[in-house]
Amino acid sequence: SYPSIALQFFWIHHSLSMKEEAIARFDYPEELKEKLVELVVYQNYSKEEVAKKYGVANTYILTNWINLYKKKLEKGAVTLAPMEKPKTKDAAELKNRIKDLEKALEKANVLIYGLNSMIDHAEKAHKVPIRKKGGTKQ
């Protein structure tokens, strides 16, 4: 009642190729992910339009990428794409874009302040100048 070794090999090989195919359907290059997120977030394309045009399996995948992008943006791990001429000049969209840029600027300023504070502390604690002084030879 045990299946033959050849049959076992067939099923193992078949299931591996099915897994690889499933993974390949959802494996997209990072550059493409970023481009598609920017189309939805900044250029007012719908998730449905983008998914259909670029062959993304479903809009849930795009939603996931957008959420990941927004988290990276909040952490300052992503720079905002330059604003291109929007598909429609909607005042609300432009206000949202300004709000996003202001938040990103605020986070960048906090990061700069924190880094400067760390350098100040290190210079005092270790009595070693870290910052390059103006007018010194290079």
From TrEMBL:
GO-annotated biological processes: DNA transposition
Superkingdom to which the source organism belongs: Bacteria
Protein name: Transposase
GO molecular function: DNA binding; transposase activity
Organism: Pedobacter insulae
Biological classification of the source: Bacteria, Pseudomonadati, Bacteroidota, Sphingobacteriia, Sphingobacteriales
SUPFAM superfamilies according to UniProt: Homeodomain-like (SSF46689)
